């Protein structure tokens, strides 16, 4: 059985994983979703890393799962804690020393998003409903409003504090319906930056809210 430690994306709300944690528990695994101090302008990537390292504690057999912007925190955690497997879910994959603010232009993220929108027939203008909530059940999307909060600006200007990608088995998981980070874009970044192929799961950018069972199935498959 594994110990799953779950890092949320921008906004840092552990609630993002509230449909995944009980499903992992029901299958006999431990799981903890980390609440990040993302609304605190005095906090940033080092503080996010501290919070995740504290959640890991002295646990063995750790599977670290990072969503979206959590991809910047995850390798910093792996440099400080014992992690057996790292899974990046619709995640930003940083280069050593790169900041989240630089990542968008460095990867061509915005151009990829707009191109996918034009090909898919939906608006290239960003809004939460179109890009984050389009496949989330209505009752879950409504509850999300109580937990949605802005990411403070501090973290966007802080570098990913690693010298190289950690020596931890890494998997990249791209949701087939992700409109924010289109799957082909994610596959390209994974190949270019990590030299690995991304796997695919149903769902959009907030896959833990829209397709938690499919996501857990894949996480456990990786563990095996």
From TrEMBL:
<protein>
    <submittedName>
        <fullName>Alpha/beta fold hydrolase</fullName>
    </submittedName>
</protein>
<dbReference type="InterPro" id="IPR000073">
    <property type="entry name" value="AB_hydrolase_1"/>
</dbReference>
<dbReference type="GO" id="GO:0016787">
    <property type="term" value="F:hydrolase activity"/>
</dbReference>
<dbReference type="Pfam" id="PF12697">
    <property type="entry name" value="Abhydrolase_6"/>
</dbReference>
<feature type="domain" description="AB hydrolase-1">
    <location>
        <begin position="4"/>
        <end position="216"/>
    </location>
</feature>
<keyword id="KW-0378">Hydrolase</keyword>
<dbReference type="InterPro" id="IPR052897">
    <property type="entry name" value="Sec-Metab_Biosynth_Hydrolase"/>
</dbReference>
<dbReference type="InterPro" id="IPR029058">
    <property type="entry name" value="AB_hydrolase_fold"/>
</dbReference>
